[in-house]
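Suppose a colleague, Dr. K., hands you the sequence of a protein chain of 127 amino acids and asks what its three-dimensional shape might be. Before reaching for any lab equipment, you can write down a predicted structure in token form. Begin with the sequence itself:
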Amino acid sequence: MRGYPVGSFLLWDVKPETAQSYTFYEFLTNYHERDNPYADKATVSSGSGTTAVLDGQQRLTSLNIALYGSFAEKKKYAWWNSADAFPVKRLYLNLVDEPDDEELGTKHDLRFLTDREASPADGEADK
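The predicted structure, expressed as tokens, is then:
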């Protein structure tokens, strides 16, 4: 969004005859610090090949969570076993307001918000 390069990705086209010899993992979509911090093992059907990511998986996982998934980390001072300690948030882009001035020179207001935080306040829905 600011013209920064995202780097390159190194992909491996795994042939069907060798795919069963390796363990592959799905992309993490809904990150939850306590309940779902790691990606599940991928199921590669017998006789099928796959494409594996050798370099760039962290960048691709971040994009996947931002575009399709959710992010839940523990709130500061919350109890680890509390049901409300890990609010589920999704990435939102504020198209209405300018971002707050920051020393980083932010040009876009992107934030992970809960559904409640992202809902318009009373009277703002008509704007």
